[in-house]
Amino acid sequence: MSSNLAGFHAPIRYGRTLTYALFDLCLHPEYLEPLRQEIHDNCTEEDGLVSDADLLLLDSFLKESSRLNGSETISLRRKALKNFNFSDGAHITAGDSVCVPLRAMGRDPAHFNDAHTFDGFRFAPKPGARRGIKYTENSPLYPYWGYGKESCPGRFYAAVAIKTTLVYMLRNYDFKLADETAPRTFSWRTTIIPRSSTKLLIRRREV
Ligand code: HEM
């Protein structure tokens, strides 16, 4: 296992994913009430931790936030061991590196209805269905955690850690962006990074 990779990418990815989810909660306040209701219905007062099976709306919200705000524009990278022809005619030779364009795929109308619109409960179970598409679920159409045998082994831990923080924030604080129109990110190479200048106003909730 690449312990170096886990060491440096885990906290960075965790931090960015959480930051983007908080931005989305500020930009789409209509989700606050149903998310808080779900937390109220599924978590006890002392319960810091979240069972991954509960909180399906929060799970969907996080997945949708990550669909539109993936902190990396590309997902898995692979090096070709031999020459290969793709079905669309593209050709790579042994030694070439290939990347999957995660951000573009997440916004592709061929794969997502109304792809550029934030729909926080897009992945939640639909009425009559037993389950939705979970945040940690890997799919070739949404390779957020990579794909195949090298897909991220830390995703279950990451999902619970991010949800636990969001539950704490939603329960205890009201928050809003000081300026919704100010730029919130910048890009560096293939990465989209939150700006340190973005101000989030946070106030303890009166409950
Ligand atoms: C939001 C948080 C995270 C995201 C978005 C993320 C995403 C990814 C992606 C896209 C890959 C490449 C997979 C591939 O090439 O198919 C990967 C690999 C990996 N991740 Fe994460 N990750 C996250 C958090 C974590 C955490 C918390 C840990 C460990 C505690 C972790 C450990 C690893 C390791 C060890 C690999 C390399 C796996 C291998 O090469 O076999 N990740 N991750």
From TrEMBL:
Q: Name the principal localization, coarsely classed.
A: membrane
Looking at the keywords, is Heme present? yes
**Residues reported in the UniProt entry to bind heme:** 152
Which cofactors does it use? heme
Q: Which InterPro entries does UniProt cross-reference here? A: Cyt_P450 (IPR001128), Cyt_P450_E_grp-IV (IPR002403), Cyt_P450_sf (IPR036396)
Localization, per the record, is:
Membrane
Which Gene Ontology terms cover its molecular function? Answer: heme binding; iron ion binding; monooxygenase activity; oxidoreductase activity, acting on paired donors, with incorporation or reduction of molecular oxygen
Gene3D superfamilies in the record = Cytochrome P450
**Pfam families (alphabetical):** p450
Record keywords: Heme, Iron, Membrane, Metal-binding, Monooxygenase, Oxidoreductase, Transmembrane, Transmembrane helix
The cellular component terms of Gene Ontology attached to this UniProt record, alphabetical and capped at eight, are: membrane
What is the similarity comment for this entry?
Belongs to the cytochrome P450 family.
Q: What is this protein called?
A: Cytochrome P450
Q: Which organism is it from?
A: Endocarpon pusillum (strain Z07020 / HMAS-L-300199) (Lichen-forming fungus)
